[in-house]
Amino acid sequence: MSTKKKDATTEQEDTLQSAMELLEKEKNISADVLYDAIEQALTTACEKTFNGRMDNIHVEVDREHCKYRVYADKTIVETDDDVMDPQEDISLREARERHIDGEIGDMVQVDINSRGFGRIATTIAKGVILQKIREEERNSVLSYYSKLEKTVVIGTVERQVAKTYVISLGRSEGVLNEKEQVPGETLRVGDHVKVYILGVHRTPKGGPKIQLSRTHPDMVRRMFEEEVSEIRDGTVEIKSIAREAGSRTKIAVVSNNPNVDPIGACVGLNGARVNTIVDELGGEKIDIVNWDPNPGNFIQNALSPAKIVAVFADPDEKSAKVVVPDYQLSLAIGKEGQNARLAAKLTGYKIDIKNETQAKDTPGFRYEDYVSDDDEEFEYVDENGNPVDQYGNPLDENGNPIVEGEADPEGAEEAPAENEEVSPEEAPEEPSEQE
Q1: CA nearest 167: which of 178, 152, 154?
Q2: How far apart are the first and last CA of the chain?
Q3: pLDDT at 348
Q4: 3 state DSSP class of 126
């Protein structure tokens, strides 16, 4: 091979290697896939050129040195007249001209010049490579977003189609359907929003279909994981979440370290952590309560900011009866029943709320079940020996519940939760049972 031909071959190899590296970087496609595409394309071109006769045709790709070779296995015959099939035979004269060592009857490898392929074969080979690149690019994008499923990412509102938003996520687009949008929230083209990747599926064409949500409860969970380092490292754990998107969310947290306050960790200094999440959710109120293994205590915490007289929980039936002071009933139920409804979702219990007057007068709902008889010894005491009910709530010397910080009816409005402002007037005027 002449020096000029060697230089041309080397230049081609360098160009091919540069193109491979560029595709691997920009399209995130592995070099092995690209080499497979080249090998498949050359094989297809050979099939077209030789009418499908590929028994003695071989394609080899040297991936280490970025070289490829196409050759045919041929038998050396004595003269040109003895060549019966040019694809199977080669004369001794031609073998010598090609600098191929061998004698008559030997099987030798004869290089095939891929540049000699016809226009149709070349076009087909090009199409094979491009198709392989497109397929692998779609697979790469699908794999990338499949790993991000059930996480929160930042996207840009690309366009609106009817009541559906198309969100650009960088390498692909996601769809935010109407039912996954926060009620009353309006997004504009160009807005940067956080979205929860609900699911990633392959379309018939092989690309990804990404379903997004801004209403899923786990969106709040992921956002707290991003903002609160104690949740990321496992010191604080989110046990359950109940959410009515755009309005209010309750989350139950517990600390695995007795020296760490779980609510304080989630709220942050001057509310910095929780306020960041509230702002991102458009002002959605967030109540953070302590989780408790005792269902009675947990239900009492979940009904915050209402004061609770007593709770009777049935773990088998997953139901609970709750007694609140007369003036706290509206606060316990919440506006349009929201507080009781979220507490039920948070705890997983069906909750029946009654005030003290209703509890005493309701048949089958004996108020005495919540308090101890005066003549009986106290069954439960706290660590200081003071009487408590079975759920740890303090009792006075007569066995009656003690409500710490109990306010008179005129002061009922001054007992809001840390992240919620609900007054008794906002709830239904007539007391009712809420589940």
Answers
A1: 154
A2: 88
A3: 94
A4: helix
Worst-scoring range by mean pLDDT, 276-285, 346-355, 371-380? 371-380
Mean pLDDT of 248-269: 94
Checking if the pLDDT of 12 tops 60, the result is no
Q: What is the mean pLDDT of residues 114-133?
A: 77
pLDDT of 82 higher than 90 = no
Q: Starting at the edge strand that comes first in sequence, how are the strands of the sheet with 236-244 ordered?
A: 236-244, 248-255, 285-290
Contact (CB, 8 A) for 301 and 351: no
d(CA 76, CA 94): 9
* Amino acid letter, 21: E
- Tell me, what's the pLDDT at 268? 92
The DSSP symbol for 255 reads E
pLDDT value at residue 392 = 64
217 phi and psi angles, rounded to 5 deg: -55, -35
Single-letter amino acid, residue 131: Q
Q: How high is the pLDDT of residue 5?
A: 47
CB 332, CB 313: distance < 8 Å:
no
DSSP 157-215: EEEEETTEEEEE-SSSEEEE-GGGSPTT----TT-EEEEEEEEEEE-TTS-EEEEEESS
- Are the beta carbons of 227 and 200 closer than 8 angstroms? no
Separation between Cα atoms, residue 429 and residue 410, nearest integer Å: 16
Task: State percent of the chain over pLDDT 90.
Answer: 41
Instruction: Measure the CA–CA gap between 361 and 254, rounded to whole angstroms.
Output: 37
Question: What CA–CA distances, in Å, run from 260 to 131, 226, 234, 254, 270?
Answer: 56, 18, 12, 9, 17
Between CA 184 and CA 162 the distance in angstroms is 16
The answer to whether 175 touches 272, Cβ cutoff 8 Å, is no
Candidates 338, 154, 156; CA nearest to 243 is 338
Reported pTM: 0.65
Question: Which tokens belong to 93?
Answer: 């004269």
pLDDT above 90: residue 289: yes
Answer yes or no: are the C-beta atoms of 110 and 151 closer than 8 Å. Answer: no
Residue pair 138/171 in contact by the 8 Å Cβ criterion: no
